[in-house]
């Protein structure tokens, strides 16, 4: 798994000579996973903080050697919160700031970051936007003479020898901002992280083609919108943990029910910044922990094995007669899957389609 990752990174990486290029140079033979762990892993922790910035993204990373990266800064109104968070962790300098794409809920807060912290390298999608915030961001980078880089697909970010970081999506000339999202894949020993920005389903498909990126912790694309997190993508990267970053009662309806069901189908534990506030994942190269309670997304659903006759009738297309039949069915033997409800007389695929996202079996 790691081997193919290195090989692909090397193939793509050699074409691009940038300051990012680290240890994945052409001449160096790939090392085995075991050897590499022995060679480089110090057991020092890597911490990834998914800062609660309401509707938006802001992720602060501390690598084992004490380097830092901020991926997005939330909306402008969240900038002070992001700066305080970083200062409270003891930093005045951020080594890398990544603006995944120029939407306001990602770059707004970076204005405060650029004004109040020292930023060494600024990684930008290159996607030009005409907003005042975007122009202000560029102006600050220029005034402070910050190293400004637009990465190419497959570039490695050479931040810490214990953490392999790779840019797995970079489309400067994308037709929309979300598609331009820089996606960063980070591997710390046995734990891997995927930071997707607002990359959509088409980008997920492309990344699956270009890279082998098994993922332990996935930041769900586009705040849990159904424009991202396709089932085939999730079945490929197999996230154990999914982090959703969004604001409570946002006007977009994020996250979408169908996306939550996709995470459940692949068995991911789901965490939400709207439910838990800031979420920190810490890895030591071998194992990881999440300092929040998983979000029980099924709590609002109707359990067809225990619901009363009245509750069953909340479901579209289920009247008193069908509710009785559901109860008779489960008395013989409980439903094992939600699909099994179609065995009940009077419930066909059409009704099931209407109620699928509203029911559970345990
Ligand atoms: Zn967004």
TrEMBL record:
Q: Which SMART domains match?
A: HhH1, Lactamase_B
Q: Where is the Helix-hairpin-helix DNA-binding motif class domain?
A: 310-329, 339-358
Highest taxon, organism lineage: Bacteria
Q: Name one GO biological process term.
A: DNA repair
A Pfam match: HHH_3
Q: Name one GO molecular function term.
A: DNA binding
Using the record's annotation, list all stretches that form the Metallo-beta-lactamase domain: 55-246
PANTHER family given in the database record: BETA-LACTAMASE DOMAIN PROTEIN, DNA INTERNALIZATION/COMPETENCE PROTEIN COMEC/REC2
The identity of this protein, by name, is: Helix-hairpin-helix domain-containing protein
Biological classification of the source: Bacteria, Bacillati, Bacillota, Bacilli, Bacillales
């Amino acid at each position: 798994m790691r081997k193919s990752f290195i090989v692909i990174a090397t193939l793509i990486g050699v074409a691009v000579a940038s300051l990012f290029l680290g240890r994945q140079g052409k001449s160096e033979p790939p090392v085995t996973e075991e050897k590499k762990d022995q060679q480089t892993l110090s057991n020092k922790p890597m911490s990834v903080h998914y800062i609660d910035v309401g509707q938006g993204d802001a992720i602060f990373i501390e690598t084992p050697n004490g380097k830092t990266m901020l991926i997005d800064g939330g909306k402008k109104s969240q900038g002070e919160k992001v700066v305080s968070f970083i200062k409270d962790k003891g930093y005045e300098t951020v080594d890398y700031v990544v603006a995944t794409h120029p939407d306001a809920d990602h770059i707004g807060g970076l204005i405060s970051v650029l004004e109040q912290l020292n930023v060494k390298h600024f990684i930008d999608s290159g996607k030009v936007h005409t907003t005042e915030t975007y122009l202000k961001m560029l102006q600050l980078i220029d005034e402070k003479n910050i190293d400004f880089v637009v990465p190419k697909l497959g570039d490695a970010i050479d931040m810490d020898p214990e953490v392999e970081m790779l840019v797995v999506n970079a489309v400067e000339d994308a037709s929309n901002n979300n598609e331009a999202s820089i996606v960063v894949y980070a591997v710390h020993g046995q734990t891997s992280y995927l930071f997707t920005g607002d990359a959509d389903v088409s980008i997920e498909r492309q990344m699956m083609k270009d890279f082998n990126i098994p993922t332990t912790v996935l930041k769900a694309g586009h705040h849990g919108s159904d424009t991202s997190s396709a089932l085939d993508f999730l079945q490929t990267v197999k996230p154990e943990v999914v982090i959703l970053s969004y604001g409570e009662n946002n006007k977009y309806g994020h996250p979408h029910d169908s996306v939550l069901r996709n995470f459940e189908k692949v068995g991911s534990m789901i965490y939400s910044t709207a439910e838990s506030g800031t979420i920190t994942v810490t890895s030591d190269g071998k194992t990881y922990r999440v300092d929040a309670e998983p979000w029980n997304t099924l709590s609002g659903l109707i359990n067809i094995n225990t619901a009363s006759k009245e509750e069953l009738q909340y479901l579209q297309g289920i009247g008193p007669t069908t509710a009785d039949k559901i109860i008779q069915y489960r008395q013989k033997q409980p439903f094992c899957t939600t699909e099994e409800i179609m065995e009940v007389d009077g419930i066909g695929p059409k009704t099931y389609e209407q109620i699928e996202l509203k029911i559970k079996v345990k």
